[in-house]
Write a structure and sequence with these properties.
Helix content: 40-55%
Bound molecules: S-adenosylmethionine
Largest sheet: 7 strands, mixed
CATH superfamily: Vaccinia Virus protein VP39
Strand content: 15-25%
Shape: globular
Oligomer: single chain
């Protein structure tokens, strides 16, 4: 069925989509040769490829995650792509055992949106940074998540996804808060145009798979199956293209 992918596969596809936007932030920050960088909640890919290159052979990129399955998937990717400057560690943002003031750059993407507790997360990130180190946050904003021609069922599903994030204490529009969460960040926004055959056009269905238990609580079995079917029909239309949600990027020195 269209859009039925595992959570690790969804995150892998998503990481590929946003890699060029991440590379632009690192370019703006400047060279990272020999530095220590952390990708918090890296999932199966995150920024590990980008940071492996950014820190270079004399530096170290660390990917942390609380889920063993995610770390295993990341480990496979690191092995397959021979990312020699990357190491992976199990760590919980809310009870981090990583050494304070030990990183030149801390990056977190899509952590505030699903997990909430933004101030607590940012406090952890700051504690892990050396004085003068870079904090980089990337979070979504749904405003541009649209289809042409319009896709009412997909928009209904996006509404449910946003509600399910909120019910779990998160905020799918966390990107909008970054300006106020940091002191004086530099900011950028990226948005992708999605052609009819682009797998990321199916993102609402991919989210629906990973959020299924929560969506079922909101609308029940039959209604969710019916909505899914209508969204599948809309998004398999060869003539329909779309625009992604926006990725809001904010970075500043600690
Ligand atoms: C939405 S995914 C984002 C993954 C990655 N940052 C990316 O942008 O592709 C959230 C990730 O955070 C991890 N995570 C959830 N709770 C966490 C916690 N308390 N501490 C560390 N990682 C956590 C999940 O296992 C998952 O890999």
């Amino acid at each position: 069925m269209a859009g039925r992918v595992s959570e690790t596969e969804r995150l892998r596809v998503q990481s590929g989509v946003w890699e060029p936007a991440g590379a632009r932030v690192l370019e703006s920050i400047g060279p990272g040769d020999g530095l220590r960088a952390l990708d918090v909640g890296c999932g199966p890919m995150g920024w590990l490829r980008l940071l492996n290159v950014w820190v270079g052979p004399g530096g170290r990129a660390v990917g942390s995650d609380v889920q063993a399955g995610m770390l295993e998937a990341a480990r496979e990717m690191v092995r397959a792509e021979k990312l020699a400057n990357v190491e992976l560690v199990e760590d919980d943002i809310f009870a981090s055992a990583l050494e304070p003031a030990s990183f030149d750059l801390v990056h977190a993407r899509f952590q505030l949106a699903p997990l909430g507790r933004a101030e607590a997360q940012v406090a952890t990130f700051r504690r892990l940074l050396k004085p003068g180190g870079w904090l980089v946050l990337e979070e979504p904003d749904t405003a541009s998540w649209r289809f042409v021609p319009e896709a009412p069922a997909a928009m209904e599903l996006i509404g449910l996804i946003v509600r399910s994030f909120a019910l779990a204490g998160g905020d799918f529009d966390a990107g909008r808060s970054l300006r106020w969460l940091l002191a004086r960040p530099e900011m950028c926004a990226a948005m992708e145009v999605l052609e009819p055959n682009d797998p990321y056009l199916q993102a609402p269905l991919q989210f629906a798979s990973s959020l299924e238990p929560r969506l079922l609580e909101l609308v029940g079995d039959a209604a969710l199956a019916d909505l899914r079917q209508r969204v599948e029909a809309e998004l398999s239309d060869d003539a329909r293209w779309g625009t992604s949600f926006a990725l809001i990027q904010a970075w500043e020195r600690n």
